[in-house]
Write a structure and sequence with these properties.
The chain is of the alpha/beta class and 711 residues long. It is built from 24 helices and 29 strands. The protein has four domains: 290 residues, Rossmann fold, CATH 3.40.50.261; 160 residues, Rossmann fold; 167 residues, 2-Layer Sandwich (D-amino Acid Aminotransferase, Chain A, domain 1), CATH 3.30.470.20; 78 residues, ATP-grasp fold, A domain (Dna Ligase, domain 1).
């Protein structure tokens, strides 16, 4: 039901609110919500609905929503589960536009609850209402024109720039409390609960162009419509950062390893691929999410990854330096010129190369001066200020100096105030001034890393995917025939033909039935050749000793052929259809793998990694969703750990990278043209600096099982 953004105004920006189930009993959820609504100074009338009471919390109450004389935009429903459906129907009759159903006991409890939830949803849809929940903790909007707090959360953060979606209600409470503690301002908050109607995607869409939301935080447990999410997030991330905590790192290795790509594409890898591709910042914990949010909501994005550390204690300075360097941030030595400048107003013993250690006696004035010098140079892009309170200097004054030094600067600064004495209040002082403040340097460094990554992602241009001229019909004939015969795996010669139709560089390959054909094929190809077994039941040929490479002449070929015949004969499930595959010997010296993994819900993903028989050992594989642009394909090739091997070690020339990125893009086109392909493995693609020597020598294509055909 996405794209009807305006309809969410009834949820976030209602002009009048009713609370149904506003109990007279103190502490009851309906009552608490009602009180919070009054406390939040909501800009409009709030009506309590109670079956019998004349008033609730000193406000005139109504026996039903229809008894309220005014128009009600939003109804917050906190009645018993079995009453919810009727109440929703009454709301529909009363012309209510938005519902927040706090009540739990639906889909999350089993079949009966699920049915009830569906009935409610049907009423909501029929009357063009929008619904949050059920089983949620409500909505907040701090826009002064609205001032809506329709939650039962005890602590409400101050007004600010962050929009927050939480799938968990319980965590929502904690999260709001934490935000309030960190003085992180919130613009809107929504706990989406069971997501019967309004889901994360709808909220993202609503916030896409809302200027009051500058940073989006999401706590998610599941994705209802991941492909739509990817499109939305990719677009929004260009304008504002999205930080996600995705819980439930799951299901690893549960799948049968029927193919390399399948075994590697575990759920979590899938999410990582998705987040990276959308520019989404992934936090591992709620705490980390807040660390990142403090940086991204209050500080400018760094232009590069060069960090200066200013400290009054050696140890923490070194810790911070290590953390930065481990995360791939750089700590350039400050130039003599800038060191000389700083030296003028700091202790002569201070060490100024970077970290800038001002020593324990440093005053707030020294901090201010050193930081402003550093922020003014072109030598660094961001700064971390570490302060450990000594006896003499007042941490609050240091916090104040940090903020003075930052005036007029467009570089991010992170504060790290350690220790106990007077620190809590100085941390609050920093946060009040919009300076992210952390207890430990690692958090500051991680946040900077996330900011650098995000800034880099945002500055990248993404060109539209290239469409190569291919013989789509030839591939379609093969794939459709196999689907019609309910076959799951393409035969080797079919798979090779599909690749040829899509313009891949495939090694010359002949599938033969007998010695005569093998002999002729080898003649045609020219020695040396490779001989393999080929057949529907033959999966990992190396394990069967069924790959014989570098066969120099006919007598050697005969020997290998006889051995393969013997291997075939020894197999229990002797496959009468088994064949011999004669192939040209590839000359390249590096092996990579390319693959498709198509999860019907998420869409096709393309894999790239170092290949060969060890691919599962190193797991050096990167995944991205199709379609791949030129830039994403390039990034994939460069981002695996083994990229250095492809670039060439010890003076070797690099392999043909342009061919690799082109092949990935062709694979992306194939994956999108044929959603029937469930898994595809090209392993190995033998590559070399010379394009003529780059050859695919093994491919496996699996189709989706008939039942989970992609729509
Ligand atoms: P498997 O079914 O075990 O994956 P492959 O056909 O991928 O069998 O062969 C295993 C290994 O043998 C490859 O990783 C590669 O090192 C080598 N190999 C296979 N075919 C060729 C060829 N045509 N030229 C050179 N090396 C080859
Ligand atoms: Mg192989």
């Amino acid at each position: 039901m996405i794209m009807d953004t305006q309809s969410l105004n009834a949820i976030f920006r209602p002009r009048s609110v009713a609370v149904i189930g506003a109990s007279r009993r103190e502490g009851a959820i309906g009552r608490v919500i009602f009180e919070k609504l009054l406390d939040s100074d909501f800009n409009g009338p709030v009506f309590p609905v109670h079956p019998t009471a004349a008033y609730v919390h000193s406000v005139k109450a109504y026996p039903s929503i229809r008894a309220i004389p005014d128009r009600v935009d939003l109804a917050v429903i906190a009645v018993k589960r079995d009453r919810v459906l009727d109440v929703v129907k009454e709301c529909a009759k009363a012309g209510v536009k938005g519902l927040i159903v706090i009540t739990a006991g639906f889909r999350e409890t089993g079949e009966e609850g699920r049915r009830l939830e569906e009935q409610i949803l049907a009423v909501v849809r029929e009357h063009n209402m929008r619904m949050v929940g059920p089983n949620c903790m409500g909505v907040i909007c701090t826009d002064p024109d609205v001032n809506l707090n329709a939650t039962f959360a005890p602590a409400v953060p101050r007004r600010g720039r962050v929009g927050f979606v939480s799938q968990s209600g319980a965590l929502g409470v904690t999260i709001l409390e934490h935000a309030a503690k960190l003085n992180l301002g919130v613009s809107m908050f929504i706990s989406i609960g069971n997501k019967a109607d309004i889901a994360g995607n709808d909220v993202l869409d609503y916030w896409r162009d809302d200027p009051s939301v500058e940073v989006i935080l999401m706590y998610l447990e599941s994705f209802g419509r991941p492909q739509q999410f990817i499109r939305l997030a990719q677009d929004i991330s260009r304008k504002k950062p999205i930080i996600i905590v995705k819980s439930g790192r799951t299901q690893s290795g549960a799948r049968a390893a029927s193919s390399h790509t399948g075994a590697l594409a575990e759920t979590d890898i899938l999410f990582d691929a998705m987040f990276q591709q959308c520019g989404i910042i992934r936090a591992d914990t709620i705490e980390e999410m807040f660390d990142f949010a403090m940086g991204l909501a209050n500080q400018p994005l760094p232009r590069g990854n060069r960090v200066a550390i200013i400290t009054n204690a050696g140890g923490p300075g070194i810790l911070a330096a290590d953390a930065c360097e481990n995360l791939g941030l750089r700590l350039p030595r400050l130039s003599d010129e800038i060191q000389a400048k700083i030296r003028k107003h700091v202790s002569p013993e201070a060490s100024l190369s970077n970290p800038v250690d001002l020593l324990a006696a440093a005053t707030e004035e020294e901090f201010r001066y050193a930081l402003s010098c550093v922020l003014q140079t072109d030598e660094i892009d961001a700064a971390i200020v570490i302060f450990v309170p000594p006896v003499v200097t007042d941490p609050i004054k240091v916090a104040h100096s940090v903020s003075m030094a930052m005036e007029g600067s467009d570089k991010p600064v992170m504060g790290c105030f350690m220790g106990v004495k007077g620190v809590a209040s100085s941390i609050r002082e920093l946060q009040r001034r919009g300076i992210p403040a952390y207890e430990f340097p690692e958090s500051a460094a991680k946040t900077l890393r996330a900011m650098v990554d995000y800034a880099q992602w945002r500055s990248k241009t993404i060109s539209p995917p290239v469409t190569f001229p291919v013989d789509r019909a030839a591939a379609a004939d093969i794939i459709e025939a196999a689907v019609a015969q309910q076959r799951r795996r393409l035969l080797d010669h079919e798979a090779y033909r599909v690749l040829q139709a899509y313009g891949f560089r495939v090694a010359q390959t002949h599938i033969c039935r007998n010695w005569q054909e093998v002999q002729d094929a080898a003649q045609t190809i020219g020695y040396p050749v490779v001989l393999k077994l080929s057949g529907e039941s033959i999966l990992h040929k190396t394990e069967l000793c069924a790959v014989r490479v570098n066969i120099a002449n006919e007598s050697a070929l005969r020997r290998e052929f006889d051995e393969l015949v013997e291997i075939l004969a020894r197999r229990e499930d002797a496959d009468p259809e088994a064949r011999f595959l004669v192939q040209e010997m590839a000359r390249g010296h590096r092996e990579v793998m390319l693959g498709i993994h198509h999860n019907p819900k998420f869409g096709p993903m393309i894999a790239f990694g170092l290949g060969g028989v060890l691919v599962e050992v190193f797991r050096d594989v990167v995944f991205r969703f199709a379609p791949l642009s030129q830039e994403i394909a390039e990034e994939m090739v460069q981002s695996i750990r083994g990229a250095a091997i492809l670039r060439g070690v010890r003076g070797e020339p690099p392999v043909d990278f342009a061919l690799l990125t082109e092949s990935l893009q062709r694979l992306s086109q194939l994956a999108l043209d044929f959603p029937q392909i469930g898994e595809l493995d090209i392993n190995p693609f033998i590559v070399a600096p010379d394009r003529e020597q780059c050859k695919i020598v093994d491919v496996r294509i699996l189709l989706h099982p008939p039942k989970d055909k992609t729509v």
